[in-house]
């Protein structure tokens, strides 16, 4: 790659970092006259936005945080020709994944918030879904783990940690299986090699990204884990509890 090419890629990665740092949850709250950093867990992510502003704003925050991880990875993958391939050389994979790392770190260490940020769940999920197909299936399996965790424990933070930790495990299990059954056929095979012959160790850039996300998410959820152990971590309300709260609020009007 020429020096000019490296310059363009570097600028793109830096721009992705700046985009990843945009605190959508905080901006939505400020638009409604509320600084969500002063309420609940004081986090800028979708869970605290939902608790503080209401469920629809929590969902909106999640979608926007997801998009700032998903979009740059998907676009850079199309430009590089790495989308829908399982035979990516490690060096090329690292360049592609650098966009995902930049978006993820931007959310964790936002340049717009004096290098403070959120916990990275939605943005990290967007990143791994965008790495199609290498991390897409593991990401979907991880979100299923999150849903089961929320259903069984009703703790969002704990479920996020379980989903993050499951991501690298699902990567090492699902990618070899998908290769063996020919689930994804690359547009261009490596010269002289069938897809099944591509060394599994070529997965290491994707495994490193999955481990980075897992460790970062668990580390950022230390306060949630501490509150859970103390019995002070709020649980997701059941439908009956939400109905009872709404009825009580109506009586107080």
Give your account of this protein's structure:
By secondary structure, the protein is mainly α. It has one domain (3-252). Helix content is 68%, strand content 0%. It is built from 11 helices and no strands. The longest helix has 26 residues, at 55-80. It is globular, with a radius of gyration of 20 Å.
Could you outline the blueprint of secondary structure elements for this entry?
Blueprint: H1 3-20, H2 24-31, H3 46-53, H4 55-80, H5 90-108, H6 121-130, H7 136-153, H8 156-180, H9 204-220, H10 222-230, H11 239-252
Helix/strand/pairing category:
mainly alpha
The beta-strand count equals 0
- Pattern of helices and strands: HHHHHHHHHHH
Count of alpha and pi helical runs: 11
Rg result: 20 Å
Largest sheet: none
What is the percent of helical residues? 55-70%
Strand content: under 5%
Mean pLDDT: 87
| Uncertain spans | 187-193
Which shape, going by the Cα principal axes?
globular
Number of domains: 1
Question: How many angstroms separate the termini?
Answer: 67 Å
């Amino acid at each position: 790659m020429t020096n000019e090419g490296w310059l363009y890629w570097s600028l793109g990665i830096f721009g992705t970092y700046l985009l990843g740092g945009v605190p959508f949850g905080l901006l939505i709250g400020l638009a409604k006259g509320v600084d969500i950093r002063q309420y609940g867990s004081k986090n800028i992510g979708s869970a605290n936005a939902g608790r503080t502003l209401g469920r629809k704003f929590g969902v909106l925050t999640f979608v926007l945080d997801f998009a700032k991880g998903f979009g740059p990875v998907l676009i850079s993958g199309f430009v590089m020709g790495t989308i829908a391939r399982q035979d990516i050389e490690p060096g090329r994979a690292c360049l592609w994944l650098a966009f995902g790392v930049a978006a993820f770190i931007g959310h964790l260490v936002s340049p717009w918030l004096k290098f403070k940020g959120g916990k990275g769940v939605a943005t990290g999920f967007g990143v791994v879904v965008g790495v199609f197909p290498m991390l897409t299936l593991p990401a979907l399996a991880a979100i299923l783990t999150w849903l089961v965790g929320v259903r069984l424990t009703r703790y969002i933070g704990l479920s996020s940690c379980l989903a993050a930790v499951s991501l690298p495990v699902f990567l090492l299990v699902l990618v070899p299986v998908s290769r063996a059954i020919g689930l994804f056929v690359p547009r261009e095979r490596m010269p002289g090699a069938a897809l099944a012959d591509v060394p599994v160790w070529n997965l290491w850039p994707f495994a490193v990204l999955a481990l980075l996300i897992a460790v970062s998410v668990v580390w950022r959820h230390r306060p949630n884990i501490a509150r859970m152990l103390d019995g002070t971590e709020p649980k997701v309300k059941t439908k009956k509890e939400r109905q009872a709260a709404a009825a009580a609020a109506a009586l107080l009007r």
